[in-house]
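TL;DR need structure tokens for one chain.
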Amino acid sequence: MIDPSTIFTTLESEVRSYSRNWPTVFDTAKGSWIRGEDGREYLDFFAGAGALNYGHNNDVLKRALLSYLADDGITHSLDMHTVAKRDFLTAFEENILRPRGLDYKVQFPGPTGTNAVEAALKLARKATGRESIISFTNAFHGMTLGALSVTGNSMKRAGAGVPLVHATPMPFDNYFDGVAEDFHWFSRVLDDSGSGLNRPAAVIVETIQGEGGVNVARPEWLRALADLCAERDILLIVDDVQMGCGRTGPFFSFEVAGITPDIVTLSKSIGGYGMPMALTLFKPELDIWAPGEHNGTFRGNNPAFVTARVALEQYWNDKQFEGDTLIKGSRVAEKLTTLADDFDGVSTRGRGLVQGLAFEQPDLATKVCSLAFDAGLLAETSGPSDQVVKLLPPLTISEDELDHGLSVLAEATTRAFGA
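>> reply
TL;DR here they are.
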């Protein structure tokens, strides 16, 4: 019999990562807190990598879920019609699409964000008859082969083991630190018959690159990108897997730019309770799939439909939740700016409740996260050199909890600098 204290290192693959940075065995969680089996509590500024926007074991969502299960509600249905799916679609139309004037068809591509991205890429190619996809530097879109082809991180790309083709990276907003116009190269090669660039089927973009280092695209940059795509008959895909569902304030992160993408991908917090669920949204004229042409066994996760519906009805039936998130985000940004001013080589970035503390010395970000964990705070690093401490607290977090976590972060930063 394997010793329980070594079961993870003995049986689990070396591919595990978060458990290396947070060496404890977690047992229970509630709201903004997660607890180890030793009883120690940690304030969660990670929130399941953005999958727990409404916190751990949210009471409103849990009651609905437990009631559904107690009544022997359907749990698995592929793409069959169910009451739970109908109720979710109704809530999504009434609380999200209609108030924003959005006319999208809804596809359930599978349980994860990378499933949603794969469906988006396949649909764009099918609709246009073209192969190439334009992505951006430092992008992250998932770990399956199609999603990896439009991901920038070299380590993750190398894991594919095969060439990743039919995708071309372009510079994300401010990639050249303002010394060159970001769209000059892109528009020039699109219009130059000698550039060697095939006209793409689509452009895929994150409005804020979470894994890429909390890189925020300006609204005017996003509008220019949308205009460029429209003028050249190129589909615009916005990957809102991590930044959607209110992370930046509005339900969709692209709302601030006033654009309407052709295709949108959602996952992570769309299920509400942290259960697997993903959506690919697209304009009706793009709904050219043949029945079953893109499918998956677990695209009908009915318990997730239940908690997703309740989350929409509870938090998105008016503007209050969005406003609260923006207020909290401003509070975090203000405190991080004050902290950054105290140390050389530290800067801030973010919008809403995705915020980053960037270090010119990348190792300091890892050190800060390690010290924060020792003091009872979960936060991860992001960026090509892991140079950014990325903060993704639950959107339901209280101001007192925010202040506590930011105090822990400030102390960890001070200690990291040896001050």
